[in-house]
Design goal:
alpha/beta, Rossmann fold, 4-stranded mixed beta sheet, binds guanosine-5'-monophosphate, about 45% helix
Length: about 200
Amino acid sequence: MLNDGENIMVILSSPSGVGKTTISKKIEQKYQSFKISVSHTTRAPRSNEIDGVDYHFISNEKFEQLIKEKKFYEYAKIFENYYGTLKKNVDETIKKNDLLFDIDWQGTKQLSKFKNLKLIKIYLITDSKEELKSRLIKRNQNSKAEVEKRFNSFDEDIKHWNDYDYIIINKNLESCFKQIESIILSNKNKLSISSLATQ
Ligand code: 5GP
């Protein structure tokens, strides 16, 4: 994977229900330079999701064919569905935009293997499991069994916090957003200064 311009790649990971989709969308809305990487998945769309915007929803057969053809930079099986980042989408977007990945720890490990990426890895966590459970239930986009599955994956998920550059505790969405914003801006500034120094 090549990223030789001044654009940065930000990974935002968290256990399910902590709020990373909301924060990713806020970043994309506020900063024109940022695009969210739209993943491919075999999961069924939720009622509020749009194909091509939230995900590219594809069949299991199609996903496995794309794996065989080595079309993904990373992919993982999560809650019995495939999720993956297509090489073509990343290569096209990074030429003009900063990229935001809403992916899990397995995908983060795979992207970390690429060197010289200007990759910033942020892990978002809640300080209350009870709060997380009520948020998963309130979200009302998953069946009861799905909520249980997502809630139970919390302990496994947080074991991987150490693979990230920054850990943010989401107690309050607005302050969490501000912290992520300042991480992104300071990394963008670092990059601009280092490219000035080499001119
Ligand atoms: P959801 O089904 O709630 O949209 O997503 C479930 C999990 O899959 C989330 O942790 C999300 O970050 C992760 N995910 C979404 N897209 C990708 C992807 O392309 N690759 C990987 N590795 N994880 C993804």
